[in-house]
Amino acid sequence: MSKSQNSSKKAPPPKSGSPILRFFVKLGIFCGGIALCGILLGGMALALAWPNLPDLHAMTDYRPRVPLRIYTNDHVLIGEFGEERRNVLRFDEIPDVMKSAVLAAEDDRFYEHGGIDWMGVARAGLTNLVSMSKSQGASTITMQVARNFYLSSEKTYSRKFYELLLTFKIESELTKNQILELYMNQIYLGHRAYGFAAASRTYFGKPLSEVTAAEAAMLAGIPKAPSRFNPIANFKRSEIRQHYVLGRMHSLGYLTDAEYQQAKSQQIVMKAAEGTPAGGYAIHGEYVAELARQLLYGVYQDELYSRGINIYTTVSSKDQEAAYNAVRDGVLQYTRRAVYPGPEEQLQMPDGIENDAQALDDFLDTAFEKYPDSGDLLTGVILSASPTEIKVMRSASEIISITDKKVLNVVARSLSAKAPEDKRLKRGSVVYIHKFGDGWEVINMPAVQAAFVALSPQDGAIRAMVGGFDFYRGKFNRVTQAWRQPGSNIKPFVYAASLERGLTPATQISDQPFQLTAAQTGSKPWNPKNYGNTYEPMLTMRQGLYKSKNMVSIRILQAIGPQYAQDYLTRFGFDKARQPAVLPLALGAGSVTPLQLAGAFAVFANGGYRIAPYLIERVTDSSGKVLMQSKPIVAGDEAARAIDPRTAFVMDDMLRGVATSGTAARARAMLKRSDIAGKTGTTNESVDAWFSGYTPSLVATAWMGFDQPKSLGSRETGGGISMPIWVEYMSEALKGVPEQKTRQRPEGLIVDRGEYYFSEFPPGQAVARLGLSEPAPVETDQLGDFLNNLTGGRDNSIRVSPNMSSGQQAMPWTEKIPF
After folding, report:
1. With helix as H, strand as E and coil as C, how does 644-669 read?
2. What does the DSSP 8-state code read for residue 573?
């Protein structure tokens, strides 16, 4: 090729760079685009969210208010609702030693940062990274104010975002002194004390202005974990935290050497001030207090919490505490018998952490915050576990050893090396422990629930009410709000209806199996069973009630007619719409609340009068002036007559027999009284277990079951698990109460061969036998509809009754305070 030809070729264009360089350029452009999008989205989110943040005026509006207080009938404080328990102080009224203690404990750079302490965030992150645990946090005082004010515990990114924005808004609109004042007045410090002024009264029985450096440091240590670090719940742990705060105060220059040594050596004296929740809540009346609050709220609305109103309930403090203990004991007894389900959670406990007390307590705090104590059911973390010993930690200085063989047998399956991972008890397992006799036991948080209510059959005054195992795990009051199938607890009312239709306690009734074909029901076959699937040829009505025979009850209802029985049940206060006019009504296929049952059995206890259960005796203002006074209907007022006095007398006699030689015989045997009457109740497959019983002066109902209905166990009955609750309560409530004689027999009642007959249905004219060879015609459309609507053969769902306060205006307060 010639030289001229080579020169005529064009050289290739130069490359703009290497492939790697081009890649990074494109990556940079991409990342820049992403960042720009992020900035735009963040700006949009900020623009949308900022106007929706709460108005800070509500945070700073601390006008002194006199709270609502609720008492038992013997003047024991059981509830307090309102702002004054915060004992709000202005910034200049808070002693400097308290401010110093709070800053040392929570945020020593508070006056230097703008709401978020970035140095603190970096320091906490580095510490947590090194220790491989979440041992330190970086929340500033402003962030805590925002979190407390936002009033949401949801762990969502949106909540965190709003909380962060609110932090900046607080810093932009309030001074540092205002923020610190807010924090010190509103922070929760355990035992229902909000703010350091209230906490000082709660724990030391003195105003905040009088606290020493040692006391201030102890109070300042509580916010980290109020349920764990308050000196009532755990004085030793509170003291450890106090020494830490004192050390910080000393190192930051808030205390001189002499002041520091003096504070360390000061002995702390615990003394709750009179009228504080810690000093005044001597009994567990949470469900009572909440219901009373709801009732009054319908009248006063938000003014209820600022007018200094006092509510005096009908509840007896002695009876209320006895009911609380009985419910707790009954639920725990059932829980012990059930298979242990395993620990609440399994934590990864670092090796050797038990050798560092501070690190161990910090580790335990995370578990205790998520799984708080429930009364005498205490949270613990297992240090070690074997078939012969379990060591449970409550704190670095409190390690409980469990070696009792009977106790260990309850959780033996979970101590086996072959146990499934989620059920195995081992190092790091979060469990609940309970003082049991002279030792301790490991027991799971109960899944089952119970309810109990006791009232006076003479006027309906409620003497005790417990709506569940633990009020603080859900305020749903099962006494008034849970609609459940009553099972055999409804039978006495069906029997009562039959007495007024010509049947007698001596009427012979077939106990042979009862069946209806699909053709007879118009839907599906109905084959009810007796408990235990045992049958007898014939029984008297009295014997049928004593033995709670389903076949006898069905034939009684068939004879008198379901529609008549449905109407008759309303005389006792039952809701007609919830009592279907079909044969399964005889077995408790309707729905009732425990309060309805207690009120209904009161009719038998008082001679046949329907009384309205009521909770509030009187309401006064802060000066003691009576604003409202109950005027209950009293048994003996013929306007309240519900059933024939003869019917009440005969049913009372039969129910006493049930407690003598029937399914409730154990109640009379344990109480050693002759004036006991009652009836057990167990629904199909033992979904609901009941016991209702009474003396002439006190009637009570106990219920046990699961909130989401399921079987309690094939062998569980009302007599086995609900009656013990009733008996334990009555053993305390009836102490010192003399036995009462049977009421005088009413006129128009004939006695023949030891049995009772109404004068209009004398021997020879009363119904002698019920034993039809063929079932009588039934209303197939109603029964068919009922059977078609059953889900799995029952309708046990919990239904919430209408808002208690909304119906309050239906009756004048001058007469009574009903619900």
Report:
1. CHHHHHHHHHHHHHHHHHCCCHHHHH
2. T
Confidence of residue 510 (pLDDT cuts 50, 70, 90): very high
Catalytic residue status for 815: no
Query: Which residues have CB under 8 Å from 357's CB, separation 6+?
Result: 240, 396, 397
pTM: 0.73
Q: Integer distance in angstroms from the first to the last C-alpha of the chain? A: 114
Chain center to CA of 581: 34
Q: Which residues of 54-66 are buried (b: 16+ CB within 10 A; e: fewer)?
A: eebeebeebeebb
Helical H segments across 221-275, by residue range: 226-229, 235-251, 257-265
Rounded CA gap, 620 and 638, in Å? 31
CA atoms within 13 A on the CB side of 197: 19
C-alpha distances in angstroms, 479 versus 241, 613, 699? Answer: 42, 12, 14
Q: Which residue has the tokens 């940079």?
A: 28
Beta-sheet pairing, 68-71 with 310-313: parallel
The one catalytic residue among 80, 83, 100, 106: 106
Write the single-letter amino acid at 534: T
698 contacts 463 by C-beta, under 8 angstroms: yes
106 counts as catalytic: yes
Based on the number of CB atoms within 10 Å of its own CB, is 700 exposed (0-12), middle (13-18) or buried (19 or more)?
buried
Q: What is the pLDDT of residue 805?
A: 31
Contact 234, 379 (CB under 8 A): no
Biggest CA pair distance of the chain: 147
β-bridge partners, 508: 540, 769
Structure tokens belonging to residue 740? 């009462």
> Looking at residue 532, what DSSP letter applies?
G
DSSP 457-502: TTT-BEEEEE-SS-GGG----HHHH--B--GGGGHHHHHHHHHTTT
pLDDT at residue 674 greater than cutoff 60: yes
* 726 contacts 667 by C-beta, under 8 angstroms: yes
Sign of the dihedral defined by the CA atoms of residues 659, 663, 669, 671, in that order: negative
If DSSP codes are grouped into helix, strand and coil, which group holds residue 456?
coil
| Residues 110-131, mean pLDDT to the nearest whole number | 71
Average pLDDT score over the chain: 85
Q: Is residue 479 a contact partner of residue 469, using CB atoms and an 8 Å limit?
A: no
Q: Which of these, 599, 559, 596, lies nearest to 578 by C-alpha position?
A: 596
Identify whether the C-beta of residue 593 lies closer than 8 Å to the C-beta of residue 490.
no
- Of residues 100, 200, 374, 488, which has the active-site annotation? 488
- What is the C-alpha to C-alpha distance for residues 106 and 148, in angstroms, rounded to an integer? 15
In the three-class reduction of DSSP (H, G, I as helix; E, B as strand; rest coil), residue 547 is classed as coil
Q: How far is CA 780 from CA 197, 517, 525, 579, in A?
A: 69, 10, 11, 17
> Tell me, what amino acid is at 697?
S
How many angstroms from the chain centroid is the CA of residue 368?
19
Give the pLDDT confidence score for residue 437 in this predicted structure. Answer: 84
CA atoms within 13 Å, Cβ hemisphere of 777: 2
The DSSP element (H or E) to which 749 belongs, if any, is strand 749-752
Backbone angles phi, psi at 197, to 5 degrees: -65, -45
Strands (E), 706-811: 749-752, 755-758, 769-770
Q: Please state, as a whole number, how many other Cβ atoms lie within 10 Å of the Cβ of residue 277.
A: 18
Q: How many helices (H) and strands (E) does the chain have?
A: 30, 21
Query: Which single residue is written with the structure tokens 């009772």?
Result: 756
Helix (H, G, I), strand (E, B) or coil at 589: coil
CB atoms within 10 A of CB 502: 17
Phi, psi of 609 (to 5 degrees): -105, 135
What helix, strand, coil percent values describe the chain, rounded to 5? 45, 15, 40
**Once rounded to an integer, what is the mean pLDDT over residues 269-279?**
65
